[in-house]
Amino acid sequence: LLEQLENQGIRIPYSCRAGICGSCRVQLLEGEVTPLKKSAMGDDGTILCCSCVPKTALKLTR
User: Fold this and answer.
1) pLDDT score of 20
2) What's the pLDDT at 35?
3) How many CB atoms lie within 10 A of CB 13?
4) Which residues contact 13 (CB under 8 A, 6 or more apart)?
5) Is 7 helix (H, G, I), strand (E, B) or coil?
6) Residue 53 phi, psi dihedral angles, 5° rounding
7) How far apart are CA 49 and CA 3, in angstroms?
8) Which of 7, 5, 3, 2 is nearest to 22 (CA)?
9) Which positions ≥6 away from 61 have C-beta within 8 Å?
10) Which of 32, 26, 35 lies closest to 60 in space, CA to CA?
């Protein structure tokens, strides 16, 4: 997801690109993603952009 956002000119802060630092955490408002690791999805509806693959169109907020 992070790479797709970058390709569209949407800048999301990041540091590690490996799902460790949490810098790319955003709120998932609409849509579905496939997490690449368990820690990529928070119980509060947040996701790590670097560790999720979109399954549908998404609506996100910081």
Assistant:
1) 96
2) 98
3) 11
4) 23, 24
5) helix
6) -115, 125
7) 8
8) 2
9) 26, 27, 29
10) 26
pLDDT digits (tens, 9 = 90+) for 21-59: 999 999 999 999 999 999 999 999 999 999 999 999 999
Superfamily, domain 2-61: Beta-grasp domain (3.10.20.30)
Contact 15, 21 (CB under 8 A): yes
Residue 14: closest CA among 54, 59, 58, 52: 52
pLDDT attached to residue 16: 96
* 50, two tokens: 């670097």
**Strand partners of residue 45:** none
Which amino acid appears at position 21 of this protein?
C
pTM of the model: 0.93
| Tokens representing residue 7 in the block | 């390709």
